[in-house]
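Morning F.,

Quick status update on the modeling queue. The single chain you submitted on Monday has been processed. Sequence for confirmation:
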Amino acid sequence: MARLADYFVLVAFGPHPRGSGEGQGQILQRFPEKDWEDNPFPQGIELFCQPSGWQLCPERNPPTFFVAVLTDINSERHYCACLTFWEPAEPTQEGVCTENASVREDEAEEGGPRRLSPAVPGPPGQLFAPKTLVLVSRLDHAEVFRNSLGLIYTIHVEGLNVSLENVIGNLLTCIIPLAGGSQRTISLGAGDRQVIQTPLADSLPISRCSVALLFRQLGITNVLSLFCAALTEHKVLFLSRSYQRLSDACRGLLALLFPLRYSFTYVPILPAQLLEVLSTPTPFIIGVHAAFQAETQELLDVIVADLDGGTVTVPECVHIPPLPEPLQSQTHSVLSMVLDPELELADLAFPPPTTSASSLKMQDKELRAVFLRLFAQLLQGYRWCLHMVRIHPEPVIRFHKAAFLGQRGLVEDDFLMKVLEGMAFAGFVSERGVPYRPTDLFDELVAHEVTRIRADENHPQRVLRHVKELAEQLYKNENPYPAVAMHKVQRPGEASHLRRAPRPFPRLDEGMVQWIVDQATAKMQGAPPAVKAERRTTVPSGPPMTAILERSSGLHGNSARRLEVVRNCISYVFEGKMLEAKKLLPAVLRALKGRAARRCLAQELHLHVQQNRAVLDHQQFDFVVRMMNCCLQDCTSLDEHGIAAALLPLVTAFCRKLSPGVTQFAYSCVQEHVVWSTPQFWEAMFYGDVQTHIRALYLEPAEDQDPSQVGEASALDERSALDVASEQQRLWPMLSREKQQELVQKEESTVFSQAIHYANRMSYLLLPLDSSKSRLLRERAGLGDLESASNSLVTSSMAGSVAESYDTESGFEDAETCDVAGTVVRFINRFVDKVCTESGVTSDHLKGLHVMVPDIVQMHIETLEAVQRESRRLPPIQKPKLLRPRLLPGEECVLDGLRVYLLPDGREEGSGGSGGGPALLPAEGAVFLTTYRVIFTGMPTDPLVGEQVVIRSFPVAALTKEKRISVQTPVDQFLQDGLQLRSCTFQLLKMAFDEEVGSDNAELFRKQLHKLRYPPDIRGTFAFTLGSSHTPGRPPRASKEKGPSLRTLSRNLVKNAKKTIGRQYVTRKKYNPPSWEHRGQPPPEDQEDEISVSEELEPSTLTPSSALKPSDRMTMSSLVERACCRDYQRLGLGTLSSSLSRAKSEPFRISPVNRMYAICRSYPGLLIVPQSVQDNALQRVSRCYRQNRFPVVCWRSGRSKAVLLRSGGLHSKGVVGLFKAQNTPSPGQSQADSSSLEQEKYLQAVVSSMPRYADTSGRNTLSGFSSAHMGSHVPSPRARVTTLSNPMAASASRRTAPRGKWGSVRASGRSGGLGGDVGSRLAGRDMLGPPQANGAPLDPGFLRPQRAALYIIGDKAQLKGVRPDPLQQWELVPIEVFEVRQVKTSFKKLLKACVPGSPIIEPDPATFLRSLEDSEWLTQIHKLLQVSVLVVELLDSGSSVLVSLEDGWDITTQVVSLVQLLSDPFYRTMEGFRLLVEKEWLSFGHRFSHRGAHTLAGQSSGFTPVFLQFLDCVHQVHLQFPMEFEFSPFYLKFLGYHHVSRRFRTFLLDSDYERIELGLLYEEKGERRAPQACRSVWEYVDRLSKRTPVFYNYMYAPEDSEVLRPYSNVSNLKVWDFYTQETLAEGPPYDWELTQGPPEPPEEERHDGGAPQSRRRVVWPCYDSRPRAQPDAISRLLEELQRLETELGRPPERWKDTWDRVKAAQRLEGRTDGRGTPSSLLVSSVPHHRRSLGVYLQEGPVGSTLSLSLDSDQSSSSTASGSRQAARRSTSTLYSQFQTAESENRSYEGTLYKKGAFMKPWKARWFVLDKTKHQLRYYDHRVDTECKGVIDLAEVEAVAPGTPTMGAPKTVDEKAFFDVKTTRRVYNFCAQDVASAQQWVDQIQSCLSDA
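Structure tokens below.
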């Protein structure tokens, strides 16, 4: 029973103390005046009576009513019902408000509640003051309060003859029941009657219509948002212009939260004066009048619901987690069915007669029923996760959150996580967790209806029925007897507030009211207390929980088979069948990814523990520990699946004996898991164990369980701990006092003993075996920052102080151990504090525990020391044998294998990604460091991959970045140190060192690697050390006659000691590629010193002229050998003359001015300069250019005779001088001017040297140049310029004859960096008008050259501000190119894109493309190709071009090389490409060592792949024109790999000058002996090409004098697969010797006589080399041919000879067919334009199945890799050096039809006429090696014309038949046509006549 009303208060308007315009509330009277003992008077009522502030009003408003809610300090809610009416203000009150009446009026209108009827003003100037009647109650009976206050107001207004004191006294003394459903009729003594209806259960909230109104105002989605926000503790603010609406909305929201109670700030109506409460940091639900909406705008973290506008505004910074699916969508749909039943029927063709919608009250209950069902679904099975920690004297209950989330499958769910951590849920557990209490609707629902709810999920009508049933119950709870409610309360008359009240509200007699109250109280005391009979029962637990959404566990669906494997493996381990267990272990470790298998493992291991102990031998122990670690590695810190909990008792049970008295337990090996350092895990475990023991305490001994079976005890016995507790609670009141005390003590000692037990357990798992690992321990989550990790509510300082004193007094000597111990002690003490305080352990006991903890820890540390000492003596575990890598000849191991794990690096295929195949990585093996490479060899750790060997290696020289990393090893999941090595050959080694590799070993590896990567001197590189370490056995030849040593010679050479020069160059010979006629044969040993010059060239161009000194002539003869000089001679570029008298006809000459490298050290010794320029002038010209690299000619077009020049960029002074100086030198010029003048003269000389320029007539107006690549999108076909005298004819022929290949360079102005003005100027558009009909230009003034004779392509920045003189014959083309540092940055990004370094979580093809785009690598390729095509165009049109960019050795070299490659087909052959690289890159001084950071000095500058970028450009052109290149794409990759590998000396050093200094250019004469390793990459390629067609492009079918114009747009470029491909089976395929497998058994051992067997093979991307596994058809045929020849014992042919013969025969066949185009698979029959673009071919090291022995030139029996290609015969014999005898004996051969013997048909055979052996042989077909028959020509009598017989070929002419008559028989032949028949007859006749 409770009072209906506690206080009645009268509040009136009073002046503000500070005299401001506003007033304030004053309590005039309150009854009773004394506070009730059980309920003090709430403070601040006067603020809540007028929430918008106390203000006077110019008119009389109608009375208003609302209910405000105040919450006191004990969280009790007080309902304040306020009825406000207005009375004329007294003069004192008016005096307050004299200022600015209009403002007041506005405020009153805004701030005051809404007017209900038009207000009528009083007399002018009359103001009205508000007065409020307030009822304060703890009960929420709003209607009763409205009626009672209304009655009091009516009595006052209507002047009824009733004593107000009586009414108020009766109101204050009215006592009503709280619940039970009874009705109480009350009367206040004014002839009124009211019926008060109490609810059936007070636990269910009363909502009336508030929930339905809330949905009506805000809608479903908004209310759901508010619901989630309130549950997840966000701030919610309601706005409305009605106070009553605010109260209802807040009440409705609270009703939805049932069964959870909202425990934060709850103020449905907040007064204006308290608005600052809104910025409180705690969550709240508050209502504020809409007038104050502006004040709420600044709140950043408040969700604002506007009830009048129907909106909910969620700030950006607030995230409201939604309900977990499918609950969110289900709830939404049920709500819409309840709110809008018409929705389901809206689309029906024949809608049923409209059903009446539920009343608002009923709808309200239906909506609540939906949310009640939602909570039942969310919290289903929650009682199974309650831990009963104490039963007596008060129940203490904890909720196991992690287990609940894990079993519901909602670990990831944000919403439920936050709800369970919230205060509301904590209150729910303490209130509803109690096992013995009254139950309500929710308890029934969650226990019994959950199965029904699940079954109904997909049946909307059944769901609706259930909702309606629940709604009925809720409605019945509020209105048990709806019919009886009859009210009779007087109300004031209509508009009574407008009548002038006779008097203000009277002052009441306090004494009288007090007397009535006292009377009632006395009566109450006399009456017997009403005992509420609570029906307490055991709360039903309901069915065990299930997951909200049955998620399949994906990959690891735990089939029974998997669990069977786990069980078998464990039984094998314990039966000692170790080999069997070992076989199963990989499968078990894989299965343990699944939850069920982990549970199964824990259960199985439990079965093998007897008496809490299981002693194992070492192998068993290792197995068990490994499986436990595998289980724990997937546990989160929460351990939501209880795996760690199940293993916890086991890790202290399994042990092994290390030595007498020393036992090692499993816990010392499973510490590295985050779960052990999580306080919440330990608390849940502790409470679970306490519950088990307390349950055992109350169960009869017969039912007692073995306490070790912690998890199962509660499940096995029928009665759960909650049932036991419920029973005990029921019996508690009947027990005697002593018995009660005894039980309390027993429980406390149980908790206490468990606390000691857990202190031990925690020290086991937190103290590391090896104290040096303390670093790892401290870094783990829970221990690093214990204060934040522990969610302790108890902050007892005891733990801290004890731990500190322990630290200071324990007297440990080892500081580090002390640190670990201290950390662990603090962690345990905090834990003990929290759990013991919560479990009600007395403070004395708690102090005792704090004293014990340090001793426990100390004791454990001492036992661990012994264990660690003994465990070190154990024999190491048998690890897989290290696989030794194959090494190159001369390669030596520097560091032997260090055990490592190779981890996945983000390339998808290696980890079994999109490319298919299993996960090859991580792999377990070793890393080796050799003088040449870093090599990893190992096996995949994934047992399903099988016995595949994984090899990944790269040259030490290619290392670009090395960084330390810390990673988990794949098998044991320990954190290990690792290294990540990235190389510029696109390999990445991400390694974790095995624990046996000490940190010092790892450091040694890093240091050695660094030393090898950056040797102090270039001589320390592998290319040099290789020769020195592996010289042949015989002693070196005495070198006295050769003069001084290499180094002194080269030094003397550089110092211009001329006497030495002659001798040096005689005795020193560089490696020279065999000259044209010797190409293909090994250089003879006895080759003379003097180089035999090719006969094809005119003698005059080669003979050094007599003008040179004799000593210089020797130098010259050596220089003439250099690549550049050979190329100049090929191009016919000048003579070796320095006198002007000779060879005037030659425009250019070869100048030896730089032979001593005095002018420019980075240029070659011989240079091409204009004939007219003197050598001494060159010195001065060179000063104008960077690095003295003055313009020299490097190529001349054979057709247009335009020349290509290259130089460094101009020094700015030179440029300015060049273009500002007058044409005639002014007297007294400075040196700068003179050198600029020299420069101008030099350029003039270049221009004059051009044949076109020399003839100054109008010829050189070369009009009609189309610059399609600059602007238009249509490629312009270009014709050969046949005549230059008639410009129109030239342009016309150009339009008609499509010649040349063109891929567009459609530069989009900016990106190409070529300005549009340059394009139009180059095209001559700004100068040329439309040509006239006769082809002459419009105006004789245009006869000047429209195209400049020379274009200088320079950097835009460098040519800024220079205005060229229009009279000059050259023109500047400023372009924007990238800088070298941009290449470096771009390459780094490209590396990261292709080899990310860490696996991508969600592989997405767009990620790679995005990072590729960010690298801008393809953009740079685009620019290079674009500039090159521009230069090609200019050269092709007859203008010469000087490329003068940066220092002239990077981008200049790229552009110049590309231009030559595109313009001259010679450079697209193997020989030509080599020459191009030797000339432009090596001789012209590209700084290979500097850009490749080859030595210590270059370390800081880093790796810049300028040459690689050039190769990429060549690769792009190769893709677009696959038939124009003699070499295959593999050749480019090979060069790309080896230009950084430092295996060869070719790409070392920065210029010829440096190479001569080191003696590299001209090596010792006798030094090249057969077995010596190749020092030059070209020599290696030559040797290799003789043995295998790997570098050869079978598609090669060039068109003569073809100029290529590739497309250069980024969309036309492809990513080079050199960057992305990888072969893990054997490492990079570019060291050819290493990629051949071990030899096969020789032929005798084969049982099948050598016939090839077909074996199925799986080819994995990324593992196998696909081109090797599946060679292309041609390689396959060549291989087959060689195999057959070997079998027949014939000396095999070289592949090149065979191939050339095949091609020749194809051409022949093509001609005999009478068609113009060759018709074979080798030479494409597509028309000529076939070649322009898009013939993209699969490429790779074709034919790489061949095995070679490179070190000897004899044919060897080494064979193809046996393991993979067992059936394939060795093919190295095919490439013998000797010509086969057979090819010489084939005098004439071809196809003939031959008639068989009697009755046999005609057959086509391949006939060979052999004049040597005098026989005519025939074969089945052309490549057949077995002769089918022989006709001996000695027996032939006659050859005569024949006639067709039966079965002869029909289409053949009769004259094509002939007969050969021998002594034995007549042979009938038929040729393909008459001509070939005649030829055969002639050949046979001539052979006979020879005989």
